[in-house]
Amino acid sequence: MASKAEDIQQREQAILDEIVRYYMDTQEAISARTLAKISRLALSPTTIRNLMEDLSANGLLTTEGATRGRVPTQKAFIVYVNRLGERPVQPPPRGPEVE
Which residue, among 11, 6, 8, 65, has the nearest Cα to 35 in the 3D structure? Predict the structure, then answer.
């Protein structure tokens, strides 16, 4: 069973992943309310807002340049890319061999 601290860290990582992907798709800031609506995570806007505040305090999100919501920082992209490297990569399916 995961500890409460591990659970919070996993939720922060999941939220950060969603925010980075949203930003890469739209180049727009996202609010906690919008993220709660579109996210596959079952978290309330209040919970997401609190997690976003923690991520901001750690330098992973900012409100600079955003009229509403938050955007990922360069540090967030580094964390995101590094986490991608930790995931196992599946080899592409092999097609019929050409002779």
Answer: 11
- Among residues 8, 15, 4, the alpha carbon closest in space to that of 61 is found at 15
Tokens of 60: 């992973």
Say which residues have a Cβ less than 8 Å from residue 53's Cβ, sequence separation at least 6: none
Question: Where do the H-state alpha helices sit in the chain?
Answer: 4-26, 32-38, 45-57, 74-86
Separation between Cα atoms, residue 95 and residue 20, nearest integer Å: 33
Cβ atoms of 45 and 32 within 8 Å: the answer is yes
At 22-41, the pLDDT tens digits run: 999 999 999 999 999 998 88
The pTM of this model reads: 0.77
